[in-house]
Amino acid sequence: MNTYSKYKQKDISVWDVNEDAVSIALTVVNNLINNNNIDISSIGRLEVGTESSVDLAKSIKSYLMELFIGNKDIGGVDNINACYGGVSATLNSINWLKTDTSKKLAIVVITDLAIMDTTKISFQGAGSCALLLGPNPNITLNENIINCMKNTYDFQKPIKSNLLGPYCNGYESMVEYHKSFKYCIEQLKLKYNKSILDFDYIVIHGGLCKIFVINTFKKLCEWEKIKYEDIEGKFIHGTTHGERIGGLYTASLFFSLHSLLEHVPDNIDNKEVLLFGYGSGSCASLFTATVKRNPQNFNTLTKYLDNRDTINYKELISNHTNHLAMINDNQFNPTYIKNKNVYYLDNYKAVNNIRTYKLN
Fold it and tell me: pTM of this prediction?
């Protein structure tokens, strides 16, 4: 859906009731395995980052094990803390690779649906990605990690709620985000004698809209006493995906990194990137990565975004009504045409929340 607004969003994502965080995760992991000819027996860890679990007990990781029939020896579960789960899953898996003696690979899956009530519709979005971790990577994460962990109440999702979306204090959430970012930048100087200007590019968690990122970097310029024009080129290419997808929750940082790789006009080989991951509540980590080379089979996202169907506001409201009917009245009525080679929720039993999925 097109949503040109003061939030600098061009589009937001909309999905049917037969799509959820599990179905889109199944699709990206299936694509990762098939497109890269991965032997499933070579996988020793599978971790998920999400805040869109479909069950309070059963992990999304357990659903993904359907793609690894014959290999039960795969560690890892779900990592949940608002938008931070993907960072946690990635760092955990990298630490596992350093200590594991099996020489197997790890897969990290980041998957979220940021559904919003109509009053906050410009913040809606969805996305999932799968990362293959192992030796000789295209992108290496460096050792220096700075964390900022604290207890805040800016963003909640009650177990029983009358809202489709979260209870979010937007102003407080941005303030807490900025506090965490500022703390990490200060610690970067104290611990490692590094300035943000020392990095070729900067990629941060994008909040729920592009203007959030722009305002954050304007704040950063105030703290560091630098000109916005001196830093814009370091981050702006990382915002292109987000302005066309919408809020991505824990997937935001990783889509922003992909956006940088796709849209930066210069050769990015051997460039150093500063990354900031954040989740309300709150958890934050600042770390660095080196892009050794752009992957040879790098798949651009723009062509897929250009081929999406567009709906109007009335159709969007109808979509929300269907989601509410599924949550409150156990009505499961998909309406959109299915795409090929995509997983969908095939059977849903509301009484015990049993969900099965099928590749179309």
Answer: 0.95
